[in-house]
Amino acid sequence: MAMQQMQQYIKVTLSYEEEILAHGAGWDRAKEINWTGTNHQRRRNMLSNYHDFIAELSESVASEMVVAKWLGIKDFKPTINGFKNVADIARNIEVKWSRWHDAHLILHEYDRDTDVAFLVVGKSPTYYIVGWSPVALGKARQHWVQAERNWWIPQIALMPPQSYKGSMYAAI
Question: Which residue of 48, 74, 95, 102 has the fewest CB atoms within a 10 Å radius of its CB?
């Protein structure tokens, strides 16, 4: 990751206690959907075992905690069984996580057009908030990847995280 590009990112480090909370919520999410390693259709990496899956869910929860922490939301409690029916944070914020620092923000058909999506990269305990996009704008034709059947928004097309707090989307 180029240093110039990384400077606009927001670095957030979770405490040990926050990591424990994220891992517990990841475990609870895995139990909630009764995933066995072979029965979940939306899993991209079907070679992952149960423990890998819990780790990925825990990192996803941690990324939600990172955005909530940066937004100043006190006592944030991650959802266990919202599964795309409710926003990750507040009423309209979805958080997408990747361990890869050069990842795209990936949107799916089931992502609500009325939400905004944040991209967070890294791994516990240190994460970077890369940027954000209104979901409806991110689902533009130029971002559609037919082979994956979803939208891949490059980081260069995302709005810097700092711009969110003053935007009209922050008040929704």
Answer: 74
Residue with tokens 């927001």: 10
Nearest to 122 by CA among 17, 21, 22, 30: 22
Whose CA is closest to 22, among 37, 12, 36?
12
User: Which is nearest to 33 in space by CA: 102, 94, 84?
Assistant: 84
Strands (E), the chain: 10-13, 93-98, 105-107, 116-123, 126-134, 144-145, 150-153
- pTM for the full predicted model: 0.89
pLDDT of 50-108, one tens digit each?
888 889 999 999 999 999 999 999 989 998 887 678 899 999 999 999 999 999 999 99
The structure tokens listed for 123 are 């791994």
170 close to 132: Cβ distance less than 8 angstroms: no
Give tens-digit pLDDT for 140-159: 999 999 999 999 999 999 99
Give the CA distances from residue 22 to residues 29, 50, 137, 138, in Å, rounded to whole numbers and listed in that order. 10, 17, 30, 27
Q: In b/e form, how buried is each residue of 104-136, taking b as 16+ CB within 10 angstroms?
A: bbbbeeebeeebbbbbbbbebeebbbbbbbbbe
